[in-house]
Amino acid sequence: MHLLAFGLNHHTAPLSIREKLAFPAETLPRALESLLASQAAREAAIVSTCNRTEIYCSSPDPHAALDWLCQFHGLNRTELEPYLYRLEASQAARHAFRVASGLDSMVLGETQILGQLKDAVRSAEHAGTLGTLLNGLFQRTFAVAKEVRSNTAVGSSSVSMSAAAVKLAEQIFPSIAELNVLFVGAGEMIELVATHFAARNPSCITVANRTLERGQRLAEQFGGNAVTLAELPETLARYDVVVTSTASQLPIIGKGMVERAIKARRHRPMFMLDLAVPRDVELEVGKLDDVFLYSVDDIAGIVEVGKEARQSAAEEAETIIQTRVAEFTDWLKKRETVPLIRALRDEADRARRHALEGAMKQLARGDAPEKVLEALSVQLTNKLMHPPTQALSSGSGAEHDAQVQTIARLYRLHPES
Asked: Where are the residues marked Important for activity as a site (predicted)?
């Protein structure tokens, strides 16, 4: 079994590729079960966010695990190869530690990814695909993230994506207070963005969601109202700002819908921010006049604010991570010896049982207990000493010298020269 992490992120792949490998939350249990059923992995956890899709697994064949990913999404491996990374053992651990600490995020030091990692681990636990190896990895991952947050300033002065959304809108409109704002979806990302917009006291806040009840719960937090997704075609024209983040696998706002909305608005500008992966808004919408459409990748420049100050803290974090990776690698090496230790104990136990059976037969025949115990001790001694004695009597040169040193160390012997 090999510890393996593979996938792609905003560093290696554009949004058009990332959205093809996204795993909606409702598909995760089926995907995890499918991966283990394919025998490409013994343990697995899947992290899927707007910026990354990564699979952490214990796999006998890294190529088979990668093939499963391509097959699950119906994609050609050659199409994805240029964008994928594959990390094993210590490199996989280092990557997980950096991701959880916010060092691999679009926003250096952001904290949302840690919650997303924990969600991924909970999903794997519920699906029964998290074993000793990955559990060990992720428990250390969360501990490292806490240590980095506690002992460095890597998260200070960071501009979150949700705050960047407001800054971007303010570049187009002079005042958020005069705008009608529509949020499409009712998940964590929308809640974060809505919190930042609500702080600017917009004229109106509306939440559009597939289920009206959930949309209403979120809208009530900000004194807004809710509509269903089915009402979007009739209501879209009312809004100056539209922020979307749903788990839909297909766009829910098409070019035709927006064209009609712009016409009804008499070409007043509309700001649209699509934070979903896959995208909620058809790409062609961005070509329309009076529409300012931005994707999750487009706000990367805004979130660079304060990055230089956090970069120094990131170097401190890397030092912490380097130390913890070394400790994790040591734990992995010790785990590799577990089968050998088990086999050694099994062999010793077989010798014990064999000698005990002989001793019991001698006692049953009426042999003196003292003689039986003496014979038993001699038999066990000879049995256990045979392998090292044979090793010392064989071999030559450097190999023999190495065997001598190893046995002397194992048995804590210091023979006089």
From this structure: 95
